[in-house]
Amino acid sequence: MAIAGNLDYALARVAARQGQRVDDAAWRRLEASRDLDHYVAAVRSTALARWVSAMAADHDCHTMERSLREQWRRYVEEVAGWHPRAWQAWLAWPAWLPALSLLAQLARPALTPQWLLADPVLGPIGVGTPSDRAAALARTRLAPLAPAVAGRTSPGAAWCTQWQVLQPRSDIRTQHCLLMLRRTMEQHARALQLASDSAEVLRTELANRLQRLFRAAADTVIASVCHLALVGVDLERLRGGLACRRLFGDDRAEHR
After folding, report:
1. Given a cut of 60, is residue 157 above it in pLDDT?
2. Does the pLDDT value for residue 66 go beyond 90?
3. Cβ-based neighbours of 27, under 8 Å, separated by 6 or more
4. CA 44, CA 217: separation in Å to the nearest integer?
5. Which H helix or E strand runs over 115?
6. Of the candidates 74, 174, 184, 197, which lies 20 to 30 Å from 229 by C-alpha distance?
7. Residues 111-116: contacts with CB within 8 Å, 24+ apart?
8. Exposed, middle or buried, 208 (CB in 10 Å: 0-12/13-18/19+)?
9. pLDDT of residue 85
């Protein structure tokens, strides 16, 4: 029996990666860095190093975010590839979550900004009207998201519809864990809509709930989704740290 593609093997690898996540004490040490050079150097001394491997201190925010999106896609596809083939497409689909805000931009009739045209995935379809862009997107692997660019639905709704299409049949326990995950994410989304200040507390609460669900779902593929969600939370925090230091430098604390 091949090891790669075996669920037990995949979950063992996911658990190992989960154990490598940076803890709160390490985050506090990172966030003590007052400028971008020191921050990136500090990140490179942790398990977060892979996310900044292609970054330089002179990169602007758009370049750094393109790099993070690319690294995220690679990571999600790597994790998905450990799993049985039936689950791989479903697990790989979250690779495109960071692109949803870009799709919302492409759905607007305004000219596509240069920073978006520079995106290697969505930039090539950024010319013309939203209808032109939707038609171009429909000829790519992101075709299920074309209705969002055409204005017929939201990017989030289009993404969720395709995720449901890709979902394999599963046992009752897996379905229950997935339902709990969906409720957790929906609760977080509602809390974000009501938040009037920093979302830092909400991010911490979400990470704690995902960590508990990761443990509860440890024998199911939903543990892998929880791990990806937790990595996404870490990347959101890293993205904020990079952007604050790029834009504000030593004054970042006043703008957080």
Report:
1. yes
2. yes
3. 237
4. 31
5. helix 114-117
6. 197
7. 115/62
8. exposed
9. 96
